[in-house]
Every structure is written in C-alpha cells, then in structure tokens.
Specification:
Helix content is about 50%, strand content about 0%. By secondary structure, the chain is mostly helical. It has a domain of about 70 residues. α2 crosses α3 and α3 crosses α4. The radius of gyration is 19 Å and the shape is globular. The termini are far apart.
Length: about 120
C-alpha cells in the first residue's frame, strides 16, 4: 500500500460506538492521549488544571470538546481528564500549581487537625 492510500484508509476508518458526531476515530483518541502526555511532561507549560490541558490537546488535534449529551464522546473526555490528572501528578507532584484545590493546611488557630481514620 502506498502512503497516500494509508492516509485515505485512516480517514475512512469506521467509527466505533454511537452517533458519528459524538465519537472520535481511534487514531484521534490516540493523538489526543499523546498530546496530553506530552503537555503534562513539558515543564515549561504552566497548566492551571488538568481540564485546561485536555482542552488544549483537543484543540491541537482539531477536535471538538464533547458535551455531557454526547455519551460516547463524554466517556472518552472523562478518560482524558483522568489521564491528565495522573500524568500531571506524576511529573509535577500531587500538590503543584496545576491543582485547582491545594493541599489542606493547618487550621488558622494553630490547633492540629484531627486525624482521619
């Protein structure tokens, strides 16, 4: 097969799942996963949250971010956020700037926090 035929085949790859408008082809999902991993590993980027990273990955891949009404697409989107959280925590630490909520601190009155069992 020639290279051009492979590209054409990739574009015609059948969609898995429901409505074609809500499901991305497997090669696009893979591309977004790669972009999320690269973005999280790039320490020059200052992500505000895992969601921001995922949205950027979708934009770079020229894909629309799904809405909750897009059942199959929404599942993929949630998986990407989970991946982004895991990679960001691994590469930058669990309480780095990318976290929306920060590490719990001591009470302001100086009393120790009760231990959670």
């Amino acid at each position: 097969m020639k290279l051009q035929q492979l590209f054409e085949y990739r574009e015609r790859e059948p969609l898995i799942g429901g409505d074609p408008k809500e499901v991305l082809p497997p090669y696009k999902i893979k591309e977004i996963r790669i972009l999320v991993r690269k973005g999280a590993s790039d320490l020059t980027q200052d992500w505000k949250s895992a969601v921001e990273l995922v949205h950027k990955a979708y934009a770079v891949a020229s894909c629309e971010v799904p809405t909750p009404l897009m059942a199959d697409g929404w599942k993929d989107y949630k998986d990407m956020i989970e991946l982004a959280v895991g990679v960001l925590a691994k590469t930058r630490g669990p309480y780095a700037k990318w976290r929306i909520s920060q590490k719990p601190s001591e009470p302001s009155d100086g009393a120790p926090r009760p231990k959670v069992v």
